[in-house]
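During the no-cost extension, the postdoctoral fellow (Dr. R.K.) reprocessed legacy sequence entries with the updated structure-token encoder. One reprocessed record is reproduced below for audit purposes.
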Amino acid sequence: MEKCGTNKERELVERPFKFIIDAEDIVKAVLNPSNMEISLKKIEGPLKLQGTAAYGVSHEMDHLLGSHFFEAKALWEFKYRFEQ
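Re-encoded structure tokens follow.
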């Protein structure tokens, strides 16, 4: 389930568990809230991501590409079944 931008409701979206991404310039940023510092380091790709990281990158790539390669399903499209 994800909610994005100005959408008023969450939608069910299928995202990849594994994602490989490459770019000319990849910067790793690590935020340290205790000393209010962000460390930046240029790293080489391709990056092989799994799980939550893969899901997040897939979501953000959709924004960068200006397209959506998925079919989202709204909650009202589901069948509801009450169990006793």
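The chain has a mean pLDDT of 87. The helical segments are 52-65. The remaining legacy entries will be reprocessed before the final report is submitted.
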